[in-house]
Amino acid sequence: MVVVEKPVAAVMVWRVVRAVVRVVEKVPLGLSMGIMENAVVLLCKRGDVSCGVLLERTLSFQSLMTKLFAKWKDLSEGSFSLSYSFAGHPKCLLESDEDLCVLYALTLSSRTECVDVAVKDLVDTSTVSTVVDVCSSSGDVGCDQLVLLDSVGTQVDLLPSFSGTNNSKVLKSAGWCNAIIGVGQVFLDGAVGFRDALSMYSLFHGFKYVYAKNDAQTVKAVCLERHTSKECNWIVKAKLEMPSGYFIIKQFVGEHTCGDASLSYSSSRSTSSFVGRLVSEDMRSDESKRPVEVMKDMKKHYGVEITYRRAWMAVKKARAHVYGDYMESFKELSWFVGAFRASNPDSMCVLERHDSEHFKRMFLGFAACKYGFTFCRPILFVDGTFLKSTHNGCLLSACAKDGNQGLYLLCLAVVDSENYDNWYWFMEQLKDFLEDGRVLVFVSDRHDENLKKRFGGLDNSKKKYLVNLFNLCAYAPTVREFEKLLNKLKKEGGVKVAAFLDTLDNQHWCHAYFPGKRYGELSSNLVECFNNWIKKERSLPITLLFDKIRLKIMEQMFARRSASMKWKGVICPIMEKKFKGLFNVSKTWAISRSSDDLYEVRCDPSVSVNISSRSCSCGEWQINSFPCAHAFCALKRGGENLNDYVDHYYSVDAFHNTYSKSINPVPTIWKDVSVGSDANVLLPPLCNKRPPGRPRTERIPSTGVKSRKITCGRCGQVGRHNRARCKEPLQH
């Protein structure tokens, strides 16, 4: 230890330092962005906030003060003290260049790389408050009042407290202050790391710079004012050091002599690549992050203004960095197919390509879902939705409903477009995948422009009325009710609507004439829910698209299997709630019994119920395969167990079997780094002709589906807009 009993010249102290350096090994390079040789980190702590300062040989006490003033704006000379603890000495003052030299020597001799420095605020003793008795002869002011007068000192400026300028926010860019430190600073990432550090440094200090030289070996930057009018001395130069490949600063003049002329909120050096690297972590947690949000985040968290175009490019590059490039993703698709088949051997994966080795279409079916589907109702909902990736395309899917009315995906496919050929191919793959000969009912959506064209030329109110009548015809449970409503629809719609209805086969669109069991299902809204469920995944590269959907289904199956273990009933909770609703409806009805199995329920109108054949004259029990309100009333009157008259598909036992199997993980740990470079590589799909108009990002809602009204959080009105899109004037 070096002991200084009384003040010594700085030259003598530096001789001691050099003597110590000769016997101390060189401090190893750290892993930070910029590193100084033989440098020590001073962790300066004030309250709950800490900042790091590099203690190097050339650092003066005044430079240390300048760095602390930049970190804490409310500090001033004489208002605080610096101290540190070292080798059993609890409080060593840090007040001059000599103290810094001694601290540097001590750290080298003890091989210390970090020292805690306490920044302690002092009470301003230059201002003495005097208590004065003030007695008013007029009696307006009482003699017992005390007034504090500052006899000596500087007046405190309280004006900024009214404008809010003293409530400065700590930005995420606060650490950029020391991104560039000085000569000898090392950048392990080479020229890219140095350029990023230079961008951070300039954005924090609010100045613009230009490159005097910029290549792989040398990067030299000068202040914009120096480049234009030769009036600023700021300059930094870094060169490549071989064979390490590091970039090291060789020249640095950190003082701007151009004054405030170079200060700016924006910078041309905040490139889209730089911004993309900043927001990449946010993109990982929020795949749908928009350019407008990036612009706001850059201003709010970094104090930097960027254009919409730059934010858009940054989002694109960040998404490519996090999720991979769209073009490169097709090269990994062959590997994914092999890995999926290996981890899920009973599943089905079909990948087709053109003769030119370009992607054509791909089918993916899960064996666990196929097994579980045997315990679901034999009805499938099929639909297609557009993809939002670079190459567009369409995703086809087939879904079922479990016993608790939940979405149950069976298989999916990605094709180049939604047409007859691709749908025929999808159905062929689905047939080969199921291979059990089970009779199935398919529910599909109509073309999005069908009813618009058929009911064209009518005003909106008339069209809405006709669509409502059309829905009533479709859901009519008996032939008599159907014919009655159909005649009314033809009469109200006229010749055009009647001609359209004559072209439809009744057994395909209405309950009354359907020969099979469709369990009351008429719309494909379930698969539309699936399309909305994977809304974020639809914008991902194709390999990640398949893998993300696989992950969601895998997690969903485990979550539902775990949740169902806590169920205590015989039938699923949703169906139990339905029974409770039927109980409330049938409270006022009267019942007469004809025989052991036959009942008459006197309501408006009255109906007959046969519990042995599970039928009701209203037709709902036969259509839904679930007791209607009349049947519920009759079963309760006869003392029957309601659960015995519910299809097995609605039971908890069937639900357990539905989710008893699992989808296996597809780990990438064995993925070869050379994937995408072999001869079996798959090329992106051939360019399809872009459809006219602006590309859709939202699906067209089904006819007859009622949209949910929302309440605006700003104006309080009920409508179709929210707080972000509210343009209503506020009433005070």
UniProtKB/TrEMBL annotation:
The keyword Ion transport does not apply. GO terms for molecular function: zinc ion binding. The keyword rRNA-binding does not apply. Residues 607-639 form the SWIM-type domain. Keywords: Metal-binding, Zinc, Zinc-finger. Transmembrane segments: none annotated. InterPro entries: MULE_transposase_dom, Transposase_MuDR, Znf_PMZ, Znf_SWIM. It comes from the Eukaryota. This is SWIM-type domain-containing protein. It comes from Rhododendron griersonianum. The lineage of its organism: Eukaryota, Viridiplantae, Streptophyta, Embryophyta, Tracheophyta.
